Structure formats: structure tokens, C-alpha cells
Amino acid sequence: MELRYGTIDENVKKRSVQDVILHERQRIPVSKGGLPSGVTSVPVVSGEKRAGELAVIAAVNDLAAQGIRTTEFFPTILLPAGTQEEFLRSLMKQICRTAFSMGIDVREGRTEVTDFVRRPVVIGTASGIPFFTAIREKDNKIQNCRGMDIVMAGFAGLEGTFILATEYEEELTDRFSGSLLYRIQKAETELCIAEAAERAFFAGAGPMVSLAGGGILAGLWELCKKTGCGMEVDLPLIPVLQETIEITEYFGIDPYALQSGGGLLIAARDGESLVRTLTECGLYSVRIGRLTGAKDKILRNGEEIRHLDRPGSDSLTKQCRSGK
């Protein structure tokens, strides 16, 4: 059944939102956390086939980088004209199954059909409690971060590659081996950085940035802004999967500006020690540079040096607009 314009009616809400939440909550019981002390809202406008799953993960990652463990998720869903009710029901199942499997409860949000969007948009609002019983308060700009190492956990462009491999599966199957696509489509298990963030907090790490839209370049810019520092980063040290390199080359897009959910930037006094800690937990990480007292944001590639510009549009956004 095609959904009508405006806020969905009560019958649709009951069938495709409320009943789905109740059914999935019974399948995967969720325990209640303490009083929430952190809130975030993250929009997901790409990855239509997995938008519900990606919205939950994006919100969880954003809170985790702030030292917050997510306990509740509230989805706001905007759908283009012509959307079928079955799509909404499937989207809600994705949201519920992803959230409940992570011990996160789902609350009923708002759903509308509107002419103002061409693709489904899920705005994930999440709340949670600190990793620590009494997390230490710290102002990351006042804290002296100069000289800290920059550690990256995860891989640049991973989420964007996952979305491309999912959305353009039929096209890519004609170009790449099944094993390459299978590897990247299974990367959904690597998109959540909550464990890496929690381990880093317990190891005494400094400010963190959860990578998302704009990729690793946008994340580095945000880390410098958050700490009030400049940076020197070795571009070849930034971890990128071979699958990401091949798929981005095919589409002609920049892997370093590609949506990078599943990646985490961490400022640390002893980067190598933090890398060892994360590696012992089975989490891939590497030291890619350091924060400096200058304002320059320097990217080194061998003898070549360039300055990081203010990030532009995400490579995935450009791809979705233009098509192949």
C-alpha cells in the first residue's frame, strides 16, 4: 500500500511502527540503563537499502566518541512520495533488530511522507549513559593536546564502500569478483566503534572523533577543531582496504573523502601504547600522525606536502547525485 502525504495515519503507525517495535523487543529483550546523560541526533541520507541499520550505528558511534554508551534510540523518518508501507515496515525491522542486538531500546519516533526528500532519510536521535560511573569532566579545548599522537581505529571509507557495494551490487558483480564484494558486504560487523572508544577511554585517551560523512579528511579537520591544534599526518599510514581502493577507482571518487563510519580518530599521549591495547582486543588501529601547536593542518605523502582544506561534500553524496 502506498503511503499518503504527511504524517502516517494511526493504522499504518500501529501496523508498521508500533507492532514492529513490540514484536522485535519480545524477540530480543533489552535491559534498562540508568538516567541518560548524553544525547545526539545523526541524519542518514544514503544507503537506502540499509538506512535503518546505518542510522542506529551512526548514532551509537557519535555518542561512543563522547564517552557515552547508548541506551535508547528514537528514529525520525522522512519518506519520498510513492513509498510503499512495506518499505517502512522493513525499515523499522532493520532499526529494531540492529538496536536490540546491541542492547539498545527503540522508542516510537515521527514518520512523514513529504515532497522535500527524494530518498528515505532517517534521523537517529539517541541517548545514553557514560562508560564510567562518574566520567571525568574535561574541556578538550582547554586540555593541552599539543604533541599528542593521532591514532586511527578502523579503515577510511569503509562505510561508504559498504553502501556502494550494497546499492550497486548488480553493477559491481559484472566488474569485480564475488569474493571482493562478499568481503565488503560483510563489513557491517566492523561499522560500530563503540568497543574501540570504550577501550580507549579506559586506557586514558584524549579527545576522539567518530568518522562519518566527509571521510577521514573531515574527521581530521574536526579533531583539530575540537582540540584547538594543528596536525601533521602521513597520508600513506591512513588504513584503507584494497576493496575500497578498487571500488572507489571504479566510481572515480576519493576514498579519503568517502563516508567512513567504523573509523575512529583518537588523540593519545602514547599512541603506540594505545595501538597495542586496541590490537590486544582484536581492534585494528595505527598511529597516523600527531597534533601540533601550530594552526597548519599538514598532510604528508612522502616528500609531497599539502595543507588540509575545509572539507567539502562527501564523495558518496556526489555519487548519489550523479549516478555512474
Explain this structure.
Helix content is 38%, strand content 23%. With 324 residues, the protein is α+β, with helices and mostly antiparallel strands. It folds into two domains: 129 residues, 2-Layer Sandwich (60s Ribosomal Protein L30, Chain: A); 182 residues, Alpha-Beta Complex (Phosphoribosyl-aminoimidazole Synthetase, Chain A, domain 2). α2 packs parallel to α3 and α2 packs parallel to α7. The longest helix is centred in the N-terminal third of the chain and has 18 residues. About 3% of the residues have low confidence.
Count of discrete alpha- or pi-helical segments spanning 4 or more residues? 11
Mean model confidence by pLDDT: 86
Q: Quickly give the structural class.
A: alpha+beta
Can you tell me the overall shape? globular
Distance between the termini: 31 Å
What would a concise description of this structure say?
With 324 residues, this protein is α+β, with helices and mostly antiparallel strands. The protein has helices spanning 10-27, 51-64, 85-101, 158-167, 169-173, 178-185, 194-202, 215-227, 242-251, 271-280, 315-322, and strands at 6-7, 38-44, 68-80, 105-106, 111-114, 121-130, 149-153, 208-210, 230-234, 264-268, 285-292, 297-301, 304-307. The longest helix is centred in the first third of the chain and has 18 residues, at 10-27.
